[in-house]
Amino acid sequence: MSDAHAYDEHPYTGYVYWFTHPDHLGVVGALHGLDTAPADGCRVLELGCGDGGNLVPLAAALPTSHFVGVDLCEAHIRAGTDLVGRLGLGNVELVRGDVATLEVPGTFDYIIAHGLFSWVPEATRAAALDLVQRALAPHGVALISYNAYPGWHDEAPVRRLMEFHTRPVAGAADKIQQARGIADWHCRRMVGLFGEERKGQMERVLGVVAAASDTLIRHDYLCEHHQPLYFEDFVARARARGLEFLANARPGKLRLGGFEPEVADMLRRVGDPVRRQQYMDFFAHTRFRETLLCRAGHAIQRDAAPRARLAALAAESRLDQDVWAPATRDAEAITVEAPAGAVTIAGTPLRIALSVLQRQAPRAVPLRELFQATLPIGCSPCSSASCSRSTTSRSCTCGGRPRPSPARCRPTPTRRRCSARWRRPAPRCPA
Ligand SMILES: C[S@@+](CC[C@H](N)C(=O)[O-])C[C@H]1O[C@@H](n2cnc3c(N)ncnc32)[C@H](O)[C@@H]1O
């Protein structure tokens, strides 16, 4: 059974993926120097949109933007179109079509291909990138996710065994059950044969297979086509079409702070952004990637975003902890649990800013307003008449000394949320 029919027999239930939201893509693009389209006035194309589980909520949340979803599976498009009709949405079209031969009118500010690239034939992979090249607006952002090496090197032979073993089996339920069975038997046998040498690897694979839903087993493990990629190879394919690596769609997932200090220092010294990312994948054993592309030729800002761009943004916090609470205020630094892992926060202005955001959550606070709320409390203005800086140190870098700090605020926590991220003031993510 071809993969296209596999979706008809065992449909894939779509979800909302927060990192595909045009607001998020637009902010990441803007922070990297692109003049991205606003979320409430943009055109979005999703390739392999499934049943519209991601696109339809986005369309509902952003009624002044336009959304087009394309998928090969008739059952998916029927289910999605039915949902669009029931919701009465006029700004989203779900179209049955093949990415390999698709022509779309006009250009799109955001193109999303989540869960498609690794699971289609090579010709479709090439066509998908060609389509992005043709249809991406000049300052557009494309998100493409794919299974990645080196992480998939552990699983690839087991996945292949599962697919090979169940090829003659008819019926999705039987296939899935037998695939789980052979994976379990094989991994345990490998541990028996090779002992400690393979134990950790096989147990990790067993854990991943056991945790995977039946749908994931059917479409990620038992699919006819499955091609993980090294990041640098993916970027080479994109570059061959005049596209460039912009950033990771989930900036918190693979960050320097997630590595031991000496590894982070080594990575910091790798100037080429693609080489640095590839090193990170080796060191973090990455198995899945969500990569953002833009058109080649932009002066991509990869370090600190220019001030003018920051000034146009707002920030919200999902921290569930007040990092400037009276009880811990005197600590040098404070460690909080964020979705991407533990984060240590040091520095008075940063802690006060996060505290202000936490108290205002879920409101996104314009950065100008945040600075005003933060700097008079956390920093003292420099006493030098010619210097406009604020500083927390005993003397300013201009040589002047800070004036005494005004009274400290004592924020009261009112909400419990987690993690902080930059965003535009509106609208809000439905995820
Ligand atoms: C794993 S699902 C992902 C669905 C959705 N993007 C998500 O992440 O929830 C892959 C989707 O790609 C679609 N697909 C596969 N090959 C395609 C092609 N050549 N053209 C368009 N859609 C395709 C499948 O029908 C399926 O709905």
Number of domains: 3
Query: What letter string, H or E per element, gives the SSE order?
Result: HHEHEHEEHEHHHHHEHHEHEEEHEHEEE
CATH architecture title of the largest domain: 3-Layer(aba) Sandwich
Count of β-strands: 14
Tell me about this structure:
The chain has 431 residues and is of the alpha/beta class. The chain folds into three domains: 3-149 and 228-295, Vaccinia Virus protein VP39 (Rossmann fold, 3-Layer(aba) Sandwich); 152-221, no CATH class; 317-408, no CATH class. The protein is built from 15 helices and 14 strands. A seven-stranded mixed beta sheet has the order 3-2-1-4-5-7-6, sandwiched between helices. The chain has a three-stranded antiparallel beta sheet with strand order 11-8-14. Strands 9-10 form a two-stranded antiparallel sheet. Strand 2 (66-71), helix 4 and strand 3 (92-96) form a beta-alpha-beta unit. Helix 6 crosses helix 7 and helix 7 packs antiparallel against helix 8 (196-211). The longest helix is centred in the middle third of the chain and has 23 residues, at 172-194. It is globular and about 65 Å long. Mean pLDDT is 85; it is low at 378-431. The structure holds S-adenosylmethionine. S-adenosylmethionine binds next to strand 2.
